[in-house]
Amino acid sequence: MNQLSSQRRRPQISIAFMMMLMLIFSFISAGLFYASRVPAIQNEIMMLVTGEIAEAAQEDTTREAQIRFVMFTYTSPLLLAGAISTGMAILKWFQRPR
Hints:
Shape: elongated
Order of helices and strands: HHHHH
Strand content: under 5%
C-alpha cells in the first residue's frame, strides 16, 4: 500500500492553464459586474434582499445598461478566443527555432 501511494503522481497545473482560468474567471466576474448595473436585475436583487423597490429605480426606463450587458455577453467569448489565439501565435513565433 505504501508503494502505491509513492508511485501515484500528484496532479499538476501548468502556469498557462492557471492563467487561462484566471482570464476566464475575470471575464465571468466582469459579466456579473455589468449584469449588476442593469436596472431590471438591480430591482430583482433589491426585491430579494429588502422586499421593496425604490421609487427612483422604478422610474428608470433607459436600456443602455441592458444593451451593454447583452453585447458583452455575446461578444466576450469571441473576443476571448481571438485574444488567446493571438497570444498563442505570438508565443509560438517567439519560440520558433532560429
